[in-house]
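Anyone opening a protein record will find just a pair of labelled lines. With that in mind, the following record should read easily:
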Amino acid sequence: MLSSSDAVVEQLRAAVDAALVEMLTGQGAALRHAQPHVHRAVAALARGADQLVTDDAATAVRAAAQAVQAGQPEQARALLVTARGRLARPESRYIGEPAGTGPEPGS
């Protein structure tokens, strides 16, 4: 069973994947079809996924959402590819405290 933090990250990844599939396979309505998935991804960030994935992954998701909203399909597609790649990296998840936020050595 997934923890709640694992579940929200998986929801984020699934939403980005679905949006990317729409952008890659959709014809003229790709942006319209991708938009609900991008909204789900941004909602997952708002539910705490932004604290569980690296900043560059969260930034890529938000930038993709802005491109979809602005009606920029090429930009949205490129940013979704970037977001997917960043979310797929093994180091994309924070485990414990992000680097530099823990107690000082010897304290």
About this structure: Residues 95-107 have pLDDT under 50 and may be disordered. Helices lie at 4-25, 30-46, 55-69, 73-88. DSSP finds four helices and no strands in the chain.
